[in-house]
Amino acid sequence: MARPRQALLTKERIVEAAAALIDAEGLDACSMRRLATELGVQGPSLYNHFATKAEIVDAVAEVVVAQVDISVFHGNDWREALRLWAKSYHAVLAAHPNIVPVLATGPGRRPAGLAMAEAVYGALIDAGWSRARATHIGALMRYLITGSALGSFALGFDADPELYDHYPHLHRAHELAAHRDAVDEGAFQLGLDLLITSLSDRYDLGVRR
Amino acid sequence: MARPRQALLTKERIVEAAAALIDAEGLDACSMRRLATELGVQGPSLYNHFATKAEIVDAVAEVVVAQVDISVFHGNDWREALRLWAKSYHAVLAAHPNIVPVLATGPGRRPAGLAMAEAVYGALIDAGWSRARATHIGALMRYLITGSALGSFALGFDADPELYDHYPHLHRAHELAAHRDAVDEGAFQLGLDLLITSLSDRYDLGVRR
DNA sequence: ACCTGAACACCGTTCAAGT
DNA sequence: ACCTGAACACCGTTCAAGT
């Protein structure tokens, strides 16, 4: 088969398969040859639709970020909007943890990433925050959200239990994995709550630096 | 040359060269063959000293984390200790940003990582925080520190300036890169300040959940 | 226009062969 | 014990050849 009259591939099919592969087996498993096999095609065929592998991965990142709900910035107080957006973003990344490293470096040229940055920054500016502070708050939220999505804290203590016996306070660290949700979600919720509450306090004081 | 009477390689030399290579050109550039070349040796020779590439990268992570100052947990109020430790950790990661993805998934079996977890958690327990809350606070700090170290927020808007013209509030986003330090450091400092201040408030209220 | 096989310059890792 | 060359099964990407 050289060229079928009906194209075998489309950008959409490629991105869909890449997203599934990344979700199921991680970024490393998503090689051009492997992805092509998944699509019933040979590796080089993908280059008829995307110039590089990075473009494919970027397109996956785009569809993931597009799932974040940014409609909450309309009709909500900035505090509530920020909280709802952060929870939505957090939930989307929890569902697609393997793509997080790609998002953690910024919006790039991705429309959904830029639309999200615009919505967050615009809402803070409209609420009266200075441009410098609005930028800081936006950055800070990304730090918390991507930092928490990058790797489970609870699952980070997955060595053999005996290892932790050498550390007076860590001797039960291996039990964290069994309470993964309570640990990881609890930490994120605490962080979000602390940040928004204390930002709100400063705002009410009229600091608005 | 088959076997020199004086070994050409040592674990220390390998880790030192790997750290330099990762700092200078990133994790991807640190391949076994490239690293071996840097050491004047052939690729497979490295396997006489480390079982896998992951072990080498882990050893680099260890020496980086070992630079974080955890002595601050002695003789300081928990608030001040947490602040000083976070600043030290942040500064170390800022000096070695390319290794951050390796640390972001937890301490693993690395002595320095475990000693740091022990120091942070122990200090929070000794201050009176419950085990659940101390865990949350520890996780939260890692989220902020690794999240901020993973990628500059300011440099994330590095597309051509025209791209941002389509977004009402982002039209000056390309100027962020010129103020990278003020943006990135300001956001981190703000986050650290907000978190510790608001934790302190809850602590003084006697919540200590 | 779009898919293919062959090729290039890389990977991590294994292993028998050398001293 | 420690370094080597050759090999295996992979990478991302290019390109001439096919329809």
Structure description:
The structure is a homodimer of 209-residue chains. Chain A has 9 helices and no strands. Chain A has 209 residues and is an all-alpha fold. The first copy, chain A, has 2 domains: 11-63, Arc Repressor Mutant, subunit A (Orthogonal Bundle); 70-204, Tetracycline Repressor, domain 2 (Orthogonal Bundle), CATH 1.10.357. In chain A, helix 4 runs parallel beside helix 7, helix 6 packs across helix 7 (131-150) and helix 7 (131-150) runs antiparallel to helix 9. The longest helix of chain A has 25 residues, at 180-204. At the A-B interface, helix 6, helix 7 and helix 9 of A face helix 6, helix 7 and helix 9 of B. The structure holds a DNA duplex (19 and 19 nucleotides).
Whole-number count of domains of chain A: 2
How far is the first residue's CA from the last residue's CA of chain A? 65 Å
Class inferred from helices and paired strands of chain A: mainly alpha
Biggest interface reads: A-B, 60 and 61 residues
Instruction: Extract low-pLDDT stretches of chain A.
Output: none
Mean pLDDT of chain A: 95
Percent of residues in β-strands of chain A: under 5%
CATH architecture group name of the largest domain in chain A: Orthogonal Bundle
Task: Specify the biggest β-sheet of chain A.
Answer: none
Rg calc of chain A: 21 Å
Shape of chain A: flat
CATH superfamily of the largest domain in chain A: Tetracycline Repressor, domain 2
CATH top level class name of the largest domain in chain A: Mainly Alpha
